């Protein structure tokens, strides 16, 4: 992820009528510098290190706004902590290391048949899905 994605995020927010406040821009710059995912608290600490005072509540609001617009994804860790990840818009899923929190993308999920069965049995129009797998990455297993 690079400056192009941050510009896209700013453009998308602006096009959808959201103000591009300095705190929001700062949060986006922190996201840009966190390609392997981040927590709200890590964003809070990074803004403090940059000398910018943004409340944790404002950071959560900004992150939730970005999630609602599909600009970042919320990844639920097994310990209940939420991590966020800036992702490209293509269809993919995440494998999350329970030890270090690393998030790895993968595309093939094989859920097409299950999705069709669920749609048929529930009579629901399934519009999408998200799959998160939890385990230990190769580096953590070596330790």
Structure description:
With 143 residues, the chain is an alpha+beta fold. The chain folds into two domains: 1-88, Winged helix-like DNA-binding domain superfamily/Winged helix DNA-binding domain (Arc Repressor Mutant, subunit A, Orthogonal Bundle), CATH 1.10.10.10; 90-143, Dna Ligase, domain 1 (2-Layer Sandwich). The protein has helices at 3-15, 22-32, 40-49, 56-68, 112-122, 138-142; strands spanning 72-76, 82-86, 93-97, 103-106, 132-135. The strands form two sheets. The protein has a three-stranded mixed beta sheet with strand order 4-3-5, with no helix packed on it. A two-stranded antiparallel ribbon has the order 1-2. Strand 1 (72-76) and strand 2 (82-86) form a beta hairpin. The longest helix has 13 residues, at 3-15. The protein is globular, with a radius of gyration of 17 Å. The model has no long low-confidence stretch (mean pLDDT 85).
Largest sheet geometry: 3 strands, mixed
Q: Give me the CATH superfamily of the largest domain.
A: Winged helix-like DNA-binding domain superfamily/Winged helix DNA-binding domain
| Helix/strand/pairing category | alpha+beta
CATH architecture of the largest domain: Orthogonal Bundle
User: What is the CATH topology descriptor of the largest domain?
Assistant: Arc Repressor Mutant, subunit A
Q: How would you name the oligomeric state of the polypeptide chains in this document?
A: single chain
Supply Rg: 17 Å
Amino- and carboxy-terminal Cα gap: 29 Å
Q: What's the arrangement of strands in the largest beta sheet?
A: 4-3-5
Question: What's the mean pLDDT score?
Answer: 85
Q: What is the approximate shape?
A: globular
Query: Can you count the beta strands?
Result: 5
Total of DSSP H or I helical runs spanning 4+ residues: 6
The fraction of residues in strands falls at 15-25%
Uncertain runs: none
Number of domains: 2
Q: Topology as H/E string?
A: HHHHEEEEHEH
CATH structural class of the largest domain: Mainly Alpha
Fraction in helix: 40-55%
């Amino acid at each position: 992820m690079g400056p192009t994605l941050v510009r896209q995020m700013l453009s998308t927010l602006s096009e959808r009528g959201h103000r591009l406040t300095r705190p929001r821009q700062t949060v986006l710059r922190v996201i840009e510098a966190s390609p392997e995912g981040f927590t709200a608290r890590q964003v809070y600490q990074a803004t403090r290190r940059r000398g910018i005072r943004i409340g944790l509540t404002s950071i959560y609001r900004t992150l939730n706004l970005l999630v609602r617009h599909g600009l970042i994804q919320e990844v639920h860790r097994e310990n209940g902590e939420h991590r966020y990840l800036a992702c490209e818009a293509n269809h993919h899923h995440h494998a999350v290391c329970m030890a270090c929190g690393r998030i790895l993308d993968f595309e093939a999920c094989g859920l097409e048949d299950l999705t069709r069965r669920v749609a048929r049995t529930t009579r629901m129009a399934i519009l999408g899905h998200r799959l998160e797998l939890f385990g230990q990455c190769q580096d953590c297993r070596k330790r």
